């Protein structure tokens, strides 16, 4: 396989500026889908992440680890933490106003995260080249400048809305995304 496993952009890849139509600085981002495990308000056991963008290019959210998120007794499950990172990474690339999906996600677990911990999550884009977006995120304990407990780096790949229509549920997309043309 010749596919590169890199999650950081090739040298010289530009960091994209804020896009026309991106939410203004300070905006709450809302959920992209009400039944999303990461951000959906109608998901009964989801993470219910609510994010803001301070600057139209990065995303911030908090996630308090609950009893439902345990792996070892009273410690966060690594897969749940990866899901939280995936969600904020996805939200951050969506600021560039195109649909993307996660192609590769790397997670570094730096500190154990006890139940009851509030993680301050932040995600940002390090560069976009063609369909490939290189993203990074971190989760800090207790405060935006607290110790880093989790780091993530990811490659997201741009897709068309047809991706979600063909592989998922077109009716659910049109119900919640009237702003999108599935077949532009
Ligand atoms: C109501 C419904 C709403 C629907 C959503 C609507 C809009 C979105 C709106 C808002 C979103 C906001 C927030 C979202 C927040 C969180 C969501 C979390 C995101 C996820 O959780 S999403 C689920 C998990 N995700 C998948 O379900 C993907 C499954 N997968 C595929 O669908 C294909 O695999 C795909 C499309 C990735 C590529 O397929 P493809 O055929 O289009 O393109 P191809 O293979 O040519 O790749 C092109 C270039 O990427 C390189 N590349 C590809 N994969 C790579 C890998 N793994 N490692 C290294 N490089 C890779 C190639 O090497 C090539 O590179 P090069 O161009 O240099 O050759």
TrEMBL record:
Q: How does it sit in the membrane?
A: Peripheral membrane protein
Which EC class is this protein assigned?
Answer: hydrolase
Q: Which reaction does it catalyse?
A: dodecanoyl-CoA + H2O = dodecanoate + CoA + H(+); tetradecanoyl-CoA + H2O = tetradecanoate + CoA + H(+); decanoyl-CoA + H2O = decanoate + CoA + H(+); (5Z,8Z,11Z,14Z)-eicosatetraenoyl-CoA + H2O = (5Z,8Z,11Z,14Z)-eicosatetraenoate + CoA + H(+)
Q: Which InterPro entries match?
A: HotDog_dom_sf, THEM4/THEM5_acyl-CoA_thioest, Thioestr_dom
Q: Where in the cell is it found?
A: Cell projection, Ruffle membrane; Cytoplasm; Membrane
**BP GO terms, sorted:** fatty acid metabolic process
GO CC annotation terms, alphabetical: cytoplasm; membrane
Give the UniProt keywords, A-Z. Answer: Apoptosis, Cell membrane, Cell projection, Cytoplasm, Fatty acid metabolism, Hydrolase, Lipid metabolism, Membrane, Transit peptide
Q: Where is the region Disordered?
A: 1-25
**EC number per UniProt:** 3.1.2.2
Q: Which GO terms describe its molecular function?
A: hydrolase activity
Q: Which Pfam families match?
A: 4HBT
Q: Where is the composition biased (Pro residues)?
A: 8-25
The Thioesterase domain sits at 76-140
Family, according to the entry, reads as follows: Belongs to the THEM4/THEM5 thioesterase family.
Q: What is this protein called?
A: Acyl-coenzyme A thioesterase THEM4
Origin species: Nonomuraea pusilla
